[in-house]
Amino acid sequence: MKPKHQRLLLAVISVFALIGAGLIAAAALREEASYFYTPTTLANANVAPGKAIRLGGMVQKGSIVRAPDGVSITFTVQDKDKTQKVTYRGITPDLFVEGSGVVADGRLGPDGIFVADSLLAKHDENYVPKELADIDMTSAEHTKDTLSK
Known about the structure:
This protein is an alpha+beta fold. The chain contains three helices and six strands; from the N terminus they run H-H-E-E-E-E-E-E-H. It has helices at 3-32, 39-44, 140-143; strands at 52-59, 65-66, 72-78, 83-89, 101-108, 114-122. Strand 5 and strand 6 form a beta hairpin.
């Protein structure tokens, strides 16, 4: 076989190997991708009760109800058009408040209520810890340069 043909054969094998590796990677990522349903997409989707999914949206104002046991909670997740009732048993994240974003991992129960196994609270770029909420960061004392001159 001529060297010219050997290089061509090597190039063709390399192209097929790269395409194969890309297809395997894409298949693996598709299985591992974890998207979440909004209440609207959940209502329109045909999700079987008991199937593990993620639900995301905003916690509806006035919907958080804590049970007397101190660890059980029910609340409503909303988006622009629909709402979804959620129950959760466990310690809630510090950022979990009414009007904030939340992503819940869990399952849709046979009664239509989403049973969350874990909660992830989301915040915007204007997050301020509770401990610093009362500090006025616009005052002259906080706007000075901290480097010595």
